[in-house]
Amino acid sequence: MKRTDIRKILIIGSGPIVIGQGCEFDYSGCQAVKALRRAGYQIVLVNSNPATVMTDPDMAEATYIEPLTVDSVAAIIRRERPDALLPTLGGQTALNLAMELTRAGVLDTCGVEMIGANADAIARAEDRTLFKAAMAELGLDMPRSGSARSLEEARTVARAIGTWPLIIRPGFTLGGTGGGIAHDTDEFRAIVARGLEASLNREVLIEESLIGWKEFEMEVMRDRAGNAVIVCSIENLDPMGVHTGDSITVAPIQTLSDRAYQAMRDDSIRVLEAIGIATGGSNVQWAVHPQTGRRVVIEMNPRVSRSSALASKATGFPIAKIAALLAVGCTLDELKNDITGTTPACFEPALDYVVVKVPRFAFEKFPGADTRLGTQMKSVGEAMAIGRTFKQAYLKAVRSLEAPLAGHDVASFDPWFKAQLDEIEAFRKFLAGQKDVLTGLTGLRNGDNPVNPVLKNEQAYLLLRQAKVFGFSDREIAEAIGTDEISVRNNRMALGIRPEFGEVDTCAGEFAARTPYYYSYYSTSDVGLQASDREAAEDRKEKSHPSEVFSPKSSPRKVMILGGGPNRIGQGIEFDWCCCHAAFALRQMGIEVVMVNSNPETVSTDYDTSDKLYFEPLTFEDVMEIYARERCDGAIVQFGGQTPLNLAERLEAAGVRILGTSPADIARAEDRDFFRALVSETGVKQPPSGIARTVDDAIRIAADIGYPVLVRPSFVLGGRGMAIVYREDRLRAYVDEAVKISGGRAILIDKFLTRAIELDVDCVSDGETTVVGAILEHIEAAGCHSGDAAAVTPPVSLAQETIDEVARIARAFAEKLQVVGLMNIQLAVKDGDVWMIEVNPRASRTVPFVSKAVGWSLAAAATRAMAGERLKDLELQTSDFQKNRKSEVGSLMSPPYYCAKEAVFPFVKFPGADITLTPEMKSTGEVMAFGRDAATAYFKSQAAAGSPLPRAGGLILSVRDADKAAVTALAKRLAALGFEIWATRGTSTALWRAGVEANALYKIPLGSPNALDLIRRGKVRWIVNTRDDGEEAAHDSARIRAAAVAAGVPVTTTLAALAEGVAGIETIRTQGDALNPRPLQSQSGQPVKGWPAG
Amino acid sequence: MNGLIEKWAAERARAAFLALDDGTVFRGVACGAAKDALGEVVFNTGMCGYQEILTDPSYAGQFVTLTTAEVGNYGINGADTESRALFLSGLVIGDLTEPRDGRSEMSLDAYLKANGVPGIYGVDTRALTLHIRAHGNRKAYLCTGRATCPQAAAARWGQRALPEEEAVAKARAWEGLDGQDYAAKVTCKAAYEFGLPPSDFGQQKQKSEDRSRKSPPHIVCYDFGVKTNILRSLAAWARVTVVPAQTPAEEVLAMTPDGVFLSNGPADPAAVTYAVENIQKLLGIKKLTRRCGDAEKGGSAPLREKIPIMGICLGHQLLARACGAQTARLKFGHHGCNHPVKNLATGRVEITSQNHNFAVVADSLPDCLEATHLNLNDGSIEGLRHKTLPAFSVQYHPESCPGPHDSKYLFDEFKNAVRNFQAARLLGF
After folding, report:
1. pTM
2. Which of A755, A779, B192, B284 has the most CB within a 10 Å radius?
3. CB neighbours of A379 closer than 8 A, spacing ≥ 6?
4. Would you call the peptide bond into A453 cis, given omega within 30 degrees of 0 as the criterion?
5. Does B43 touch chain A (CB under 8 A)?
């Protein structure tokens, strides 16, 4: 029975996307919020990440997009007075924050009960010493280990264990940050020091190495009555030593006998009992020695996790939802299994398929970073695939990645998996020799009945079918035999080889599933359903409606939404948010939604987001099969990022009706000549540019247009390979390198506008009305990738005429490009002139942020426009829009407060990588903050991004020559605020001349005090370090920044950001209440309407 | 590489098919023994433990379809055998893989061959499962041994030694399992005493603890197709004599048991009439009435005459029938390791291992029986207790193997009942 003594529950989200904490916690949070509200509870939600569905204003009663810090959450608790805090759904961030709130006495003082897991249980699970003691009491085997709070203690522990290598894990972190494997004393010293830094409780665990052991995980649910079930068992292909998040994993466990499996099951449940997890979901990790079978417990997470999100998607069992309901006192047998709708949630899902998850890395973004896989997680996303055999699932997962699978040591895999992979490669080689068989088909047309064709075709049939059963895509087959994908596809169609679709039903077919959640597979045998075959064929004939002949203007009844696939830098949760909003909006319109995606972390792949969910790779082949099977009336490709866009033209050519802006128009925006003409037609300035194929070309063009120049390869995606070049020798080096990599493809050279203000503009258009959602003004000057830049809206430094001009440009481009849906424009403003940088007629990363800022879902509106509604018919609650609506010339929404966005970077995971912001995007996530002025919003956004600006203390100033004049005024204000300034020689000279006192700082090799000393001694709490990209003198800079990142000291790399920061500190110091949190629902002073219901 | 291609080519020459009595044919590749078989097709949703399933005598007369995707991965292991032989008609699976585990003794394919059981793989087991879900368990004919075809083409479209239509006809003509006494086919030939195999580490500790007691209780176990782990579970604290299914109650009583165990077993409880009569004698029931409380050993009888009885699966159904309840066929039974069962006394839910096609009809329960356990999926009766006699039974498998160990406590309950009985007898109560 659910508890009635609790009415209001606080849920903490996981904040920005970082490595080790992706959008899986938006998925779990959404489920929990929905379930608890349906059960009658009031929900207060706090999360700093605007690109989450959970922070949509219609999800919770009160939604706070505020920093996840003790101060901020304590203020929310005091304002909202919740009865309970549910800390187990927001990853390690929420768990840590809940523990800090407990220690700070906030929960006690405010009478807030922790539900789901109490502080004692969390401590027992997270504190290595307590955990070890609890496991010893259970009699469970553990690796030999000891914990240490200093390097000295660590050495003692290492001596006691007595073998190399040793594993070092910090206590209380996420994604294994700061951990590592030490093979000798030098490595040991370095990793222990890093681990002590990263640990919230300044403790590291040193362990006997289990490298090479088999690794397993069990997802356990437990209720207050003591009922416990294993939702999913997971086996890692990469053995111990590779972080689970970076491992290829498979569910269910494949290589354990029932005896071994059940023993592990019993012990997993006992672990939960011993730790004291009274209710909810936890995962328990195990290692098994491959020869002796000795099994040791590794760890348990007393909360929902990345693994539990994967387990939910793999089994159909909604762990987060059930965990939330168990936390408020329900028991498993009282809850229904959503998928069947008839059986209880108290059961263990049976899988009749194999699920494989593969990680996606982004090493190309971080030159210099160590790419070896280890105990510290490095992947930025993952793809999951379902097949009827391991091989099918594995091949599907790999092709879902859209990138080669690399970094895994197949030789270290369990022999069973290795054999499967060997068979795949053997078959691939075999196929290569079968070109004649597969290409010499005769006399077949698409749709022919392949029964009794000539023997030649018969061989082709058997071979092709076997290849499909193995799991090869048409494209892989084409690659193997040296032909093109379309001809393989045509032959396959002609031979009638089509996939079957299985259902993720939690019960292996035993009960009928109510929630349609599908995967494709090719059947090993031609199942001869003699009677049903005929029935099915009749059925098909009856139901078939000619999707080829319907009018393009007719309103669709069934729409496919293509998701974004695995998260990566530049394509993440923001796009999934758009896809979810598209689904919500369509369903609200009564249109059936078919979602296709391969990313298990997302809300879009929750089974109740769409009407039908296909967990499939986003490839031409897979999408076409689903489109044909479902007989969709159209597809939406502009929300899932680059992945579906890349497919758009081929899909359209194959008969898919693309809703919204046509693929041709999307492509045209990328066409350089067309675009240039369009820009000049619109009367907008565009930086001079040129195309170079050789070094000499490049140098000539650059000399013509003048340095600095922005250079990039012509096939650029997400800012990949972009750079700003200030000097000829650097250009020469860049082009040399780029020509080598791109194999002679063109290099684009643009004049780079120095010290310009960059703008991001997100609009919605229905082809008639164009609504400008918001103009984002970047804090950093142009040159930093828009995804990495901090930004504020409404813009602070633009004149009204500039804003009007921006709106005019937006409308003009929307019209010229015939945009129906979303459009993002990047502009630069310099000396009052507006310059065009680029236009993308599709969803951008900033759409969720803008939607939250103005209180109106741009993605939902765009979807409605694509489905045939007119924007001016939509009811918008924003008064500005109402006001401008009559003019029908497009509207600018401007909220009565300021919003700041800040990016979050994974540098701490990649020691050695440079942290300078460049045109190449490096951030993994972002935060949002609200404030009554831009400076306050910016100040809060820094705290939310995990590098809070200090209000006083030591500060290092080290700026490039170009900034030296401008820095002095800011330095004066900092001094007035009481900051103690340390400055490098050039900067301190400039300050001294302006009459600002500063302590001198030596260059690192030259003496003390230098920046590294100060950072290590904790003397400085803020570092301001600007430099020109391409300036060499910066070796010191790199070391300073690296040390700062490691020590968690905020680093400001532009003067513009410094100015905002200083202004923010001034505001906070003078107006103490400026930081007071306010719920999203009342930010605009009125209730939010018009959001698509989740 | 060549090995794989040869394997693939060979597969095409070993075409097999499973013909259902409703005319549906599932085609695949033959494995195991090269022979044809008749049986009833059931599906089991467990995700591991294929060896325990193969060796469970309750599957006699059935084709077991494993819904789990990959089968054979960890090979065959002597310790995981649940009976002296394989009694099932055949195995139906999706993907058959070779073990790569050094500890595996042989491959699944070799094991089936060695035990004379045919199999078919490459079947779309999901399609088959959905078919059974819709139409119930079907009688079927598995054609493997004689289906070798000279040409690849024939593997798909005929030229079989046995035409599919004929196989369907054979399936239709087969008498099926209803009303059939399969317990008689799988039971042991003569009584024997069960010895705990030394390979069972898990129960060593408990065994030595129990050994310290002077005289272990004596359990007589009716073998209707008993699984070894039931015997292991009992032998951990008792001396266990296993007797053939047909053994008269008088003979059993002559062995002066401290408890009687009614084992699991195959097919239809209604056909095992002799067992029902024997159980009635053990319970002291002379005449069945709706109240069934007229058992002469009920109520007032001395404790020493009330022999504790525990039943599992078929044993449970037989105990229920002995008390006057009815049994009936379920549409496609319960076969798997994930069935939630609620213990009505404690409110706790156990995840159970199940394997049965027949069940006790809830409406038919006589007054003397109370339901102790319910299946949460379909509300069917999973456990019974006699209100006045120390007799209880469960439909599912507390001995697991394969499956979760949540229900082991039932053996402890039986142990306590047996010890009480033993004490009462020694003290003359």
Report:
1. 0.91
2. A779
3. A19, A245, A246, A359, A360, A361, A362
4. no
5. yes
